[in-house]
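Pipeline run #58 for the internal structure catalog. This entry was flagged by the ingest filter as a single-chain record with no existing model, so it goes straight to prediction. Upstream metadata was stripped on purpose; only the residue string is passed forward. Reviewer on rotation: M.T. Logging verbosity set to normal.
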Amino acid sequence: MYANGDRLMVKRIILDGLGKPKGPYVHAVDVRAKRLLFVAGTIPTDAKGRIVGEGDMRAQAKQVYENIRRVLKSQGLTPGNIVKSTVYTTNVDEFRKGTERQKFYAGKFTAGTLIEVKRLALNEVMVEVEVIAAAE
């Protein structure tokens, strides 16, 4: 069944036989949209470009999701418009301890991927997130 939010048709799919996704993800998202917004890998910087929360995964994740929220809002979108997310982190276990991701998506989960990497573009960055959002 498609959920209709301002004519954007989104069907979040969890299939029997694949197991319930662990975390705020679904197996697939079927989108009927006229507009896609691709948000580049977002890191935990403040308005002056300084890294927020050096050495603190939770603080960094909170800042990353706030930065994504600001990008979406600038285009008239919300986290509910996100249909795909990719998270890169230097420590998956530490990233999973936080609740920022669950709060951000508020039950409207995406098709998503969580990847642990040795390091990111800046040594002090512990998490980077990119998303694709859809709109009518």
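catalog note: Strands lie at 3-5, 8-13, 25-26, 28-32, 35-42, 82-89, 110-116, 127-135.
catalog note: The chain has a mean pLDDT of 88.
status: ready for reviewer M.T.
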